[in-house]
Amino acid sequence: MKYRSLKQFVCFLMVPLMMLAGVTAQTQAAMISTDNIAAEVSSDLGRDEIKSLLDRQDVSEQLSAMGVNTADVMDRVDAMSDAEIAQLHQQMETLPAGAGALGTIALVLLILILLDVAGVTDIFPRV
């Protein structure tokens, strides 16, 4: 009698399990384009580049002088969307790095040459 009740128990257990086995979750597969992956990678690289700039000592000191906490800035960078990161990265690339330095060097050199020609200084000895 015990065998019969075990057999019934297994049957009662297997019937619902077999019915549930027919129910499957729907899945969806799609091709991922190279552009999508490249955009995601460039967004991550842009975010990393911005964070590395914020980690610099001089930038951190400047932010502190303005009363801005560096950790708050890092949190804001993490919360930025990919489009905002791309826009900020593009603006950073278009900013002139050391703008006017070449003009300043040329002006100083011109003044030194004029002073040397006038005989005020002897920076460039005559050969």
Detailed description of the structure:
The protein has 127 residues and is mainly α. The protein has a domain at 34-95. The protein has 6 helices and no strands. Helix 2 runs antiparallel to helix 4 (70-79) and helix 2 packs across helix 5 (82-94). The N and C termini lie far apart (122 Å). The mean pLDDT is 76.
Q: What is the number of beta strands?
A: 0
Count of helical segments?
6
Contiguous uncertain segments of 5+ residues: none
Query: Distance N terminus to C terminus?
Result: 122 Å
Secondary structure elements and pairings:
Blueprint lengths: L1 H20 L12 H21 L2 H9 L4 H10 L2 H13 L6 H18 L9
Helix pairs in contact: 2-4, 2-5
Q: What labels would you give this structure?
A:
mainly alpha, 6 helices, 127 residues, rod-shaped
In short:
By secondary structure, the chain is mainly α.
